[in-house]
Fold:
Amino acid sequence: MKKYAILVFIVFIQWNANAQELYSKAFGNPKDSSIIFLHGGPGYNCAGFEVTAAQALADSGFYVIVYDRRGEGRSTDAKAQFNFKETFADINLILNKYNIKKTTLIGHSFGGIVGTLFMKQFPEKVNALYLVGAPVSLQETFKTILKSSRKIYESNNDKTNLNYIDMIEKMDPTSAEYYAYSFGHAMQNGFYTTKKMSDEAKAIYGNASKDPAFMYASKMTYEAPQGFLKNENYTSINLTNDLKSLVSSKFKIYGLYGKDDGLYSPEQVNQLQELLGNDKVDYIDDCSHSVFIDQQKRFIEFLKLNSK
Structure:
């Protein structure tokens, strides 16, 4: 028996020696209501939120945890599987690490997909979910990007880019090429940037640029999108029925979207308002994809209001 116990202990030590530590950081008082931030991507990291919004949210009375998904950002792991099973296991690791039994999730962009599916599988561990610039259907988002881009190119008589749009629309909409080219045109046309930046946002960006960690915010790894596409076919996911089921079961789900976010048409946001309830979705002027920076004060007020 003693020999067996020693063997188990050795195996346990070996497993921990080989395990890859996830990058994570906590802000605020552990006695306050917890929030875990789920970053976008796949392939990005939590640095943008970490540097610009985490402390401000903590100062408003929340215990805020940020982390980079396995194999993304600063959570380097050559053995990352890039699937939802692993992703959910890591969220549970974060909960255990910070001694949290039940939390609120902020799902930004792709993180909203992660948050919705985690809530569906582990409802007992989630108080509320905030979808922040998050897609309900990436296929609808691709259509919005291409339609809006075409309109811009037509107004500029840009025949070269119109030919590119024609080419993309003939591709398999679930392919990596379709995904990459669509988001490439979104970036090219400024769909992630608000047209009129507030003084608050200018100050936040200015201060963030002085933080060395902010350099990670624009860095992307390419193994993650390829892996999630291969393993989960994530660009074909449509969360409509999942959200309907969760809402009908009285789970708390909210949305925050910017009117300058070119990834989503007003019609898409209206559909989400119908699904969640008008009072559950804040559709914000002078705001794009990074709601927590572009309109930070309103973002925090919305969370405080709905956490009561």
